[in-house]
Amino acid sequence: MTEVDGELVYELLKKTHQWMDKFEHALGEVKHEIVAMRLQALGTQTDINNIYAVTSRIDQRLDRIEQRLELRELAEPQRPFDPGV
């Protein structure tokens, strides 16, 4: 069996340490990108919720308008339809 030189082990450990530093840096970048994606998804969800809220308010206003029109139609005297007029 060959003798393992201490300097060889030291060089291997140094390279392993450098590789781990690069790996940790890349992993940090990935984490930042994931956070950015989460924030984008949250913003999109907030926009969708706002659209639903506005749509709901419009729907409520339309219902009130329709009710008013129905009441007004009942209060006005009805004439038969005359296409010649």
Offer a quick outline of the entry.
With 85 residues, the protein is an all-alpha fold.
Based on the model shown, name its key terms:
1 helix; mainly alpha; rod-shaped; 85 residues
Computed Rg: 36 Å
- List low-pLDDT spans: none
* H-E order: H
Form type: rod-shaped
Q: What summary fits the major beta sheet?
A: none
Number of strands: 0
Distance between the termini: 114 Å
Structural notes for this entry:
- The chain has one helix and no strands.
- The relative contact order is 0.04.
- By secondary structure, the chain is mostly helical.
Secondary structure elements and their pairing?
Layout: H1 6-75
